[in-house]
Protein 1
Amino acid sequence: MGYRVVVAGATGNVGREMLNILAEREFPISDLAALASSRSQGEEVELGDTGRTVKVQNIEHFDPTGWDIALFAIGSDATRIHAPRFAAAGCTVIDNSSLYRMEPDVPLIVPEVNPDAIDGYKARNIIANPNCSTAQMVVALKPLHDFATIRRVVVSTYQSVSGAGKQGMDELFEQSRNIFVGDPAEPKKFTKQIAFNVIPHIDSFLDDGSTKEEWKMVVETKKILDPKVKVVATCVRVPVFVGHSEAIHIEFENDISAADAQRLLREAPGIMLVDKREDGGYVTPIECVGEFATYVSRVREDPTVENGIALWCVSDNLRKGAALNAVQIAELLGRRHLKKG
Ligand code: 2RA
């Protein structure tokens, strides 16, 4: 008993993590297909540590007829080609790219935040996964918003290089190594040196001076959490391999104390509160790698506004920021709408 599951982009950072998480969460799979471009055709990928390996097929030649769920991590250009044909064949697409996130008839889902929105998936038979930096933030905001209604969010992100794919990770590694031999190497993936540096630029610049990554955090938060919430973001690339961190400052309509916020966060789904006002009483990105949780630390009142809370939020961007959220959407879809084969 189980679903016929396709992982498209199976050899990339997120694709491999989706395979790992399908195994870790024992997602019911009766049949598994791993797809990638022709470059990776014939490679073998593993379904986590189950010992089960799957030969990678060329997505161009794959017929999705009779398959139940396709987890996509192939970028917007390839998704534009393949998602419609998978959806039309009756295979529900859960897409990690940004292509469909803001389409009015495509649900954009974080299961801990807006699970009911998935009930509209049949319109296109496509469900969108949010941007990694949005996903962890709305998980942390949700319990606080339900309690005291958020008016405004100011967020600064510290995003790891794995958000830019394997090339981003390779660039940090090589630059960090070469610096000690006096040759930091010219930036390729990033606009400036990333080793021992930070870069206030992710994705492309928009006319108003913000970047597309910052725009995504604004519009996706409004779609997932509440269109009335005002958000302003500064998204920064930092020399960390995996794990996005965020300093979040929140203004509420109603009164909320730090103790209220800590209690709500401690009890909320998907959140691990690690918050002691002492040396080491907080989470850092290195500690979140490989974990499912969205970690929250440094919860405190912000005295500069009437009802303000500031906090620190850390999560594995390849997991809750992408692969885990996608698998959780598949679990939600199965519970609510699909019959196991
Ligand atoms: C990044 N959120 O971190 C973007 C895409 N994964 O680069």
Note: The chain has eight helices and 13 strands.
Protein 2
Amino acid sequence: AAKDAGRGVYRFYADAMHNQASERKAIEDALRDALAKEELKLLYQPIVDIARERITGFEALIRWQRGDGEAVSPSKFIPIAEESNLIVPIGEWIIRTACDTIAQLGPGYRVAVNVSPRQFANDRLPATLMSALSASGIAPAQLELEITEGVFLDESPENLEMFQRLKRTGVRLALDDFGTGYSALGYLKKAPFDKIKIDQSFVLGAADKNSMNAAIISSIVGLASALRMETTAEGVETHDDLALVRRLGCSHVQGYIYGKPMDRDEMLALLRGSDGQVVAQGYQSAR
Ligand code: C2E
Ligand code: MG
Ligand code: MG
Ligand code: MG
């Protein structure tokens, strides 16, 4: 009987793994057509200079609404796009679309795009950037690339070389999700980052009593300022969070307190109505 039960468990896992693999394959196939079917779009979330309470730019965040109406989260499909290399054409579309948006915003604003590890490793990335920059006519420093710490898993000379090639195109570089990966501090010194984005896992609830997060944020800010980099605190939802990251010296904030990701028209309307000046809205956190 024990043997039968064991076989049943095995069957259960085998089926679950098979289902997972075929779900991935189905997502990959649908994603292959998503660009052509115009099912992908970018939303834009404000990034605010804390001291001046002004929007200095936006982060472009991808959304996929499938033909059947189902919305697929980027945390689900970006890893599949990565493994299948579909991230390369999708990433090129993201860069071109973001550059067009920047041209519409005018010279006072930046847009940041997320660059995943496979995109970063692609030899054609600098050429893609240069062609998108010149087609849109924007200043290169208006475009910022957010690179996640995961890229550092491989501390190769190739990576350092790519950072230098990207920097030479004139775009800005931000280190995303800082604190969640293997922080290679020596490497951070060598790579030409303009900004560190403090992961929201350190920010959400940082103002709560007994949280270690304030100490972590404070040391990241100290490190960034020694390296002459800006810091953006991600995931700021409440007035308490905002007061804390301001006191700890973060230069920028991004979070629901100033705005959720919005579509291009909403973004343009927001700027028309406010000229970039913003007021923190008491976001009622679900935490
Ligand atoms: P990320 O780059 O760290 O983006 C920040 C995420 O935090 C976004 O989730 C954003 O909507 C969310 N967020 C911002 N403020 C708040 C807040 O106050 N509270 C809470 N609870 N969440 C907040 P999203 O849009 O679901 O994206 C998730 C991740 O997917 C991104 O993390 C990024 O790693 C990836 N991703 C999104 N768009 C792209 C893209 O165009 N290309 C690539 N390669 N990856 C992308
Ligand atoms: Mg990001
Ligand atoms: Mg981030
Ligand atoms: Mg993050």
Note: Residues 59, 114, 146, 176 surround magnesium ion (ligand 2) (CB under 6 Å).
